[in-house]
Amino acid sequence: MITIVLVVVLYPLYQTLILSLLPMEDIETYINQVENRGLRFIPSYFWPQSISFGQYSLTMNDTFLRAYAVAIAYVMLITGLHFPIAFVLGFVFAKVNFPGRDVLFFCFIATMVLPFHVTLIPLHQLLHHLHLFDTPWAVILPSAFSPLGVFLMRQFLSQIPNDVLEAASLDGAGLWHMTVFMLIPLVRNGLSVFFLLTISLQWSSIEPVLAFIRNNEWQPISLLLRQLMDEMPSQIFAPSVIYVIPMILLFTATSSGVDSEWKN
Description:
Layout: H1 2-20, H2 24-35, H3 54-59, H4 62-95, H5 101-110, H6 120-129, H7 137-144, H8 147-157, H9 162-170, H10 175-186, H11 188-203, H12 207-212, H13 221-231, H14 237-263
Helix pairs in contact: 1-14, 4-7, 4-8, 4-11, 4-13, 8-11, 11-14
C-alpha cells in the first residue's frame, strides 16, 4: 500500500523531470498530444530517447532569475518576521493566564478558516491607507501575522510543564535565557514543522501577490509559472523542476533533523 501511494505521489515529479530533459521538438509534440481532446490517456515518458538541456538554457533568463530572487526574499522576510511573532503569541496563549485568554485565542484561530477573499477588501483598504499597496510589504506584513504559526507554537509550548519554567525562574533564569536555552531546545521538532509549513506555504503563495502587487518586478516565481502555463506551456517543465528543488531540500533537512531527534 505504501508503495502504491509513493508511486502516485512521486510519479508527477518524475514525469516533470523527464519532460524537462526532452528536446523542444519533442515537447511541442507532447503539448499538442495533451491538448488533443481525442486522446484517452496522456502520453508518458519513462526515459527520454535523447537528453537536451535546451529548456534549462531558455529558463535561465533575467525574468526567471529575478522572480526566483523575489520569491526567496519574500520567504526569508516573512519567515523571519513571522517566527518571533508566532513564538511570543504562542507562549502568551500557552503559559500566561489572563481573563478571556481562551476566547481571544479561539477568535484569533477562527480566522484560519476564513477564505482569503473574505479579508481581501479590508486588507486592500488598509494597505492603501498605509501607502503600502503595490509594494513588497503588502505581501510580507499580512503574511507575517498568519494565525497558523501562532496555533502551532501554542500547541507545542503548551506541552512544556509549568514546573520546568518555575524551577528555571527560581534559579534566576530570565525570560530571554529561558527562551534561548530551554523553550527553543524543548520544541525543536515543533520548530521544524513550523518552518516547513511556513516556508512551503509562502513559496507557493500567489493570491496576495495577485491582489496587492501590480509591479512585475515584485512578482515571485510561483506567479511566473502560472503565466508560463497560460502563455508558453512548452517551457513550463524546466522551471518547475528548478522551482521545486528548494522545497525538496527543505523537507529533506527537516525530516532528517526530526529523525535524528527521535533516535536520540
